[in-house]
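Take our chain:
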Amino acid sequence: MFRLWVYLQIFSWLNVGIIADEYFECWNGVIIYELAKCNSKIDCSDNSDEKFEECYNQTCPEEKCSYGGCINSSKLCDGTKDCWDGSDEHVRKCSPRMKDYRPDNTGCKRNEFKCTEIPECLSSQYVCDGIKDCQDGSDETELMCIISTCPENTFRCKYGGCLPIKRACDNVVDCVDGSDEIAAICTKLNTDYLNTSSPLRNASGRATSIHTGNENLTAPLPKGCLISETLQKHQVRTLFNVLPYEKGAEIPSTVVVRVICDNNTVSIGSDLNQCLDGKWQETWPECRPTCSRTRFANDLSTQATCDYKGQIRKCSDKDMQLLPKTKATITCSPGYKSIVENSKEIAICQRDGEIATWNSQRVLKCIPHCGKIPDTVKEEPWLVSVFESYTSKNQFMYKCFGQILSPWVIFINSFYCLITDNVDKVVIAEGTQTYEFYRDQEHSYHLHEIESIHKSGHYNLLKLHDPFIFSASLRPICLPRVLQKYVPFSNNTVYRIENGEKIYYLSKIPKDFKDLIRKFDKIKTKVH
């Protein structure tokens, strides 16, 4: 009776609009978990959990989609669109040639931006500041601004421009896409906001016509500052991080620049500097070499803890600076085992001239601990549930069980289980789940998207979009070995005794599937 009362109370709270912090109400009234909001995956049927209006000010621990949703850093530029707006695979972020892209500015000064259609010059500091300066708006485009880093007290327009916060929700449109006057945002920021915004402001007038070299200056300008040629490992960029300044170029007085250290170095000191009347106000930061984080961030099979002068954190944390003398303790992740008896690696970050590298006696190699059912687990930990949608993209029906073969691959021993080739109609739920569910409604399933479906005879092989994170209750079954004797266990599953334990194997699998599994795992390991 008490449980029924609790359910009724929750129902009444939701109906009067009092929603607990751990829940988010979709615009159509459906309730989902707050953690599912702005995670780059659409959970509300009306897409409202991943809209700019809900995610524009989201704080992300790693990488952020342009609209505001969060993704893991391993998903950035991995060849697969994870942000629904595609911003994680945008050419400005992913092409080495485009990261330092600077459009032709013939006729303008070295530190100026040339408008695309109109022969005008603009100080680079105004590019992507959220205010249209070029008459053609070319200083405020997605191509220019999608990589922006907006400082505090700014509003990030949907296309990437960084607008002074006081100009957002002031009933005058500044962002070229109008995102600074979206009613759903402004009514939250200002309860007195009136949705009567005027059209986009005209060009600010800060852009000037192409220089002829004969301009008559009516008054001397304050002395600017030169970017030193001696800054070997530094990139000096505009405040919003969208355009690089050339070394040796003169920066106008009052301009603030952002200093970026090259890859595998870390900035010690302020990353901002300002020119005032010919003098830089801050000392340029030191760019110290650091050891690579790639191994810790991308290797599913290991976990590492780093210690630098008593500061102990996960090595994969972006806030952990992997400076020389950092000690990394590396062990196998849950669900993995070392191929040798010693299951620990100690690596020390050591400086070698202008670079830093990890130095260890040996490299720990971990492989999935396949085919074992731990004593604490009642079900086969490699079993997962295959669901397919029919009449609605949000309603999913149970089809069959599949078996985990690797972090990225599922095997299905039934042609009739999965006839469709449409990956959008299929999802995988961890464990043995059989009840239908609606994707835009609350459920307890941990779901995985499908990237591709492969068929061979009556077998199916599914490649996941995101990997399984192995544990005691989630791990793969072993692939069959040649010329080994096994004991039958269940449909397509056998076992043999190894070191006093039952280890379970698939009884058979098409040879072309084995080749695919090796290919998928190799590609994913390389990319991620």
Observations:
- The mean pLDDT is 85.
- The radius of gyration is 28 Å.
